[in-house]
Amino acid sequence: MMEIRTPKTHKAKRVLEKRAPKLVENGKKTLILHGTKTSATVSSVLMELYRLKKGGAIKYSRRNENIRPFESGGETSLEFFSLKTDCSIFVYGSHTKKRPDNLVLGRMYDHHVYDLIEVGIENFKSLLSFSYDKKIAPHEGSKPFICFTGEGFENIPELKQLKEVLTDLFRGEVVENLNLTGLDRAYICTAISPTKVFLTHCAIKLKKSGTIVPRIELVEVGPSMDLVIRRNRLPNEGLRKEAMKSSKDKPKKKVKNVDQNDVLGKLGRVYIPEQEVGKIPMADKSKGVKRERREGKMKKNKEEGSASKKLKESE
Amino acid sequence: MDMETDQIHQIDVGNLLAFNPSHRFPSAPSSREELVKECVTEGTKLVQAIADTLFNFPSTETSDGPLVQLPRPTTKLPREKHLPRPKPPTKWEEFALKKGIQKRKKDKIVYDENTDQFKRRHGYDRVNDDNDIPIIEAKASDEPGEDPFAKRLDDKKKRVGKQEKNRLQNLKTAAKAGALPSHVQLAVTALPISGTKTQPQKIGKDALGDVAGLAATSTASGGKFDKKLPGEKPPKKQGKHHKYLPVLPHRGKVDEEKEQTNKVLSKLLSKHSHEILNVGKAINMYNDKKEKKKSGRSDKLKAKKDITKKKPYANKAQ
């Protein structure tokens, strides 16, 4: 027995429609949580990451013992949380002896794990330790500049994946119109070695220059840390192809024989092929309509008529 | 200068993203501060490059500030959900397509011939309201005892029921194709039953746990070496429930198995054995078994007895 469940309130309906798969998607939300044990660095990293992504992030404060992203069974809780909160990126922090100050950045496709990358945090500097003029402090939810420096991001597959994940994480919503006065933050990532990336968050100061383009000055405000690549898991090829599919991949087919005229509007051209009268397919092929049959019947009626006439005459 | 930097840096203005693949640290940076400084300067160059292109876009002035239209982002990032799948046509849509039936827009106000007025199609005081019919003329095919008004109501109920069934079927086919509308969820309330008409009882959590525990420990080693599913808790009563003593006595040890059976036997044959053994019941069971054996092993050929009927007791011990 199946039951149809529909939302009883408009608000619920709107929420479900927002979470439904669409052609053009909403910005990805981030889920921030931690594991059994966290160190001071990890907990402050998670807290500051949450503050940076305030509008589009959800932070869980309880510890989650049964989440092990890299193990085959340990992702069920993550997938459940992703489904409940509609988050497709997660940041999982933990601290063990073997992997101190560990951060796992992962993405979901259809609420199943798509790819993972594990980094270790070193040389972490909290945003509280930076002193700067409060006027240039970036506003919450502003669209950031993201900059990557270093050939490692192109040559090394792990760094390439990290670049993609960081772009996804920091990007926020994809907007069409941008207010130029609202540009006030930038994330700078530099590959300082094949396994280490230096990440920092800066505020932007626009200074007058001779042209319309102002001169940019960056001031470090936010957390800065070194990310050391540990483990990673790339998505399988089939899943990757499916996730990268977008509706605009196939170019619009050029419509032939249609013209746009300013006076007459839309004009179309119709080509009529030569008619071969003998070869035109007949529509009605039912038995009774066939000409031979009809003629046969007519003949029969005539004969019968004449026969009956004869009978009548004879009678 | 601008052109050069544009060529070196890969800029994606839609994402406000810039990538400089050609920077190499000239020497191992001496200190942390030097490193940080160099990174920030490199970053500044990249942000400047993006800003160059950004501020040169045509901007519209609004109250908040200059608004600029961003181009589409060029870096491809994976989607978070699958592309929406096309909905399979419903049974009616298929039929309409086949027959060439076009959808016609219905008016909200319809002319009612009975009252010579314009009335609304649905709602209060509507056209062709079922409750408004005062007289239903009898037809030759009508039975005398039938209530035509009740019959009308019945027919309507049946039609509504059929429509609901069809709607559910359409949703099921849509769900199969993965194209269920976003606000609908199909939930299974009960498993399909065959045979008896009884509703399946809802199994409680404890009952399920007991059964799962039984199943888990029913292997030869008591479920100790079984691979556990993620999130599965260890069964409550682990290990074997029966301890079978070795039949052949170990060197030097007392024959425990022999002792066990001897104990039971001595208890049965002791003076107070009637307190342990229910002699009457034992005799009945023995007699029943003898009867069964006598009639021969033709249980399968015998007609199946109705187990709900109470069996008259065959042989009562006299």
Automatic annotation (TrEMBL), chain A:
Region (Disordered): 278-315
GO terms, molecular function: rRNA binding
PROSITE patterns reported for this sequence: BRIX
Record field: compositional bias (Basic and acidic residues): 282-295, 301-315
Listed GO biological process terms: maturation of LSU-rRNA from tricistronic rRNA transcript (SSU-rRNA, 5.8S rRNA, LSU-rRNA); ribosomal large subunit assembly
Protein location: Nucleus, Nucleolus
Residue ranges of the TM segments: none
Chain ranges of the Brix domain: 28-238
InterPro entries assigned: Brix, Rpf2
Cellular component aspect of the GO annotation: nucleolus
Highest taxon in the source lineage: Eukaryota
Record's keyword terms, sorted: Nucleus
Pfam families: Brix (PF04427)
Family: Belongs to the RPF2 family.
Designated name of the protein: Ribosome production factor 2 homolog
Species this protein is from: Brassica carinata (Ethiopian mustard)
TrEMBL record, chain B:
Any one Gene Ontology BP term: endonucleolytic cleavage in ITS1 to separate SSU-rRNA from 5.8S rRNA and LSU-rRNA from tricistronic rRNA transcript (SSU-rRNA, 5.8S rRNA, LSU-rRNA)
Keyword Kinase among UniProt keywords: no
A cellular-component GO term for this protein: preribosome, large subunit precursor
Predominant localisation class: nucleus
Biased composition (Basic and acidic residues): 148-167, 224-235, 296-306
One Pfam family recorded for the sequence: RRS1
Cellular localization per UniProt: Nucleus
Keyword annotations from UniProtKB, A to Z: Nucleus, Ribosome biogenesis
Record has Chloroplast as a keyword: no
Segments for region (Disordered): 62-89, 141-167, 217-260, 286-318
Function: Involved in ribosomal large subunit assembly.
Family recorded in the similarity comment: Belongs to the RRS1 family.
Name this protein carries in UniProt: Ribosome biogenesis regulatory protein
Biological source species: Brassica carinata (Ethiopian mustard)
Taxonomic path: Eukaryota, Viridiplantae, Streptophyta, Embryophyta, Tracheophyta
